[in-house]
Amino acid sequence: MTSRALLVGSSGGHLAQLLALRPWWDGRERTWVTFRTPDAESLLAGEHTVWAHHPTTRNIPNLIRNTLLAVRLLARSRPDVVISTGAGVAFPFFVLARLLRVPTVYIEVYDRIDTPTLTARLCRPFTSLFLVQWEEQRRFARDSVVVGNLL
């Protein structure tokens, strides 16, 4: 049986880091959740993609819209795992995945070495596996697993 993955992340560098996981997600049934931007449309051409609402930072209406999107998508797609590199769009997906007992994997971005991102801090309580890309990131994420630089 092929596993189903829900890959959630902002466009740009967050999406690039998820795309770098291709050896893992290639061959799996997958759905992408990101923002409709020219780079995302180009990079995800031919992929099953659901467009999230942005901006997400301090935007309560879009948080509500993305929460409703997460409810519909998690109920419809029934993923085996939700994976994210952030940013804000990940939060409602992690909360709802946890409530539905769907495992979640958060990968802290490579460019935050001294302090965790806001999204990492928000998602951490709902994360089954927390991954970092640098050994130095373990200072603020002691129980994390170092996977190395994705880019």
Q: What count of structural domains?
A: 1
Rg (C-alpha, Å): 14 Å
How far apart are the termini? 30 Å
The backbone outline, from C-alpha atoms, is: globular
CATH class: Alpha Beta
Based on helices, strands and strand pairing, what is the structural class? alpha/beta
In this structure, how is the largest beta sheet organized? 7 strands, parallel
Per DSSP, the total helix count is 6
N-to-C SSE string, H for helix and E for strand? EHHEHEHEHEHEE
Number of strands: 7
Strand order of the largest sheet: 3-2-1-4-5-6-7
CATH superfamily: Glycogen Phosphorylase B
CATH topology: Rossmann fold
Please tell me the overall pLDDT. 94
**What proportion of the residues form beta strands (DSSP E)?**
15-25%
Spans where pLDDT lies below 50 across 5 or more residues: none
Helical residues, percent:
25-40%
- Tell me the CATH architecture: 3-Layer(aba) Sandwich
Structure characterization notes:
With 151 residues, this protein is an alpha/beta fold. The longest helix is centred in the middle third of the chain and has 18 residues, at 60-77. Strand 4 (81-86), helix 5 and strand 5 (104-107) form a beta-alpha-beta unit. Strands 3-2-1-4-5-6-7 form a 7-stranded parallel beta sheet. It is built from 6 helices and 7 strands, in the order βααβαβαβαβαββ. The chain has helices spanning 13-19, 22-25, 38-43, 60-77, 90-99, 118-123, and strands at residues 4-9, 29-35, 49-52, 81-86, 104-107, 129-132, 145-146. It has one domain: Glycogen Phosphorylase B (Rossmann fold, 3-Layer(aba) Sandwich). Helix 4 (60-77) packs across helix 5.
